[in-house]
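Minutes, structural biology subgroup

Action item carried over from last meeting: produce the structure token record for Prepilin-type processing-associated H-X9-DG domain-containing protein (Psychromarinibacter sediminicola). EB confirmed the sequence was re-checked against the source entry. Recorded below for completeness.
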Amino acid sequence: MKDLIAAVLVLMTMATAALADSCWWHNGSLMRLKAYGAERYFYYEQPRDGLWSAGVRPGTLLFNGRKNGNWYSGTARVFSSACGPMEYAVAGPVAPNQTQVTVQGSRQTRSGCAFTGNVVTDTLVFTYSHQC
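Output recorded by EB:
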């Protein structure tokens, strides 16, 4: 019985470590999650076609922040070829099975590079795909 418990604990540790450098889907793009302690970073691994014109390339950072329990909080970015990335605060839960992260935040919209004064709420959903 001790051996079985030890084996289960090893597998659980390996599963947690696997998610520390793992691939996730977000809005048609494949993302890479990097974890360093509580710090979390989602980078584009394979950006969807429409993002290339906005300057997004493999390795472009979309989200950086922290995981506290089952909660992420940090900074997300929206991209523009004319104006560069715009940062805004986001936060949200991790699914109980640890395979989905949903963060939400409000940001101003732009017309060209000028802020319009209008505010929209963005929801970013990351769904686990595989170990990269």
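Discussion: The domain at 2-131 is CATH 2.40.128.30 (Lipocalin).
Next step: EB to file the record with the rest of the batch.
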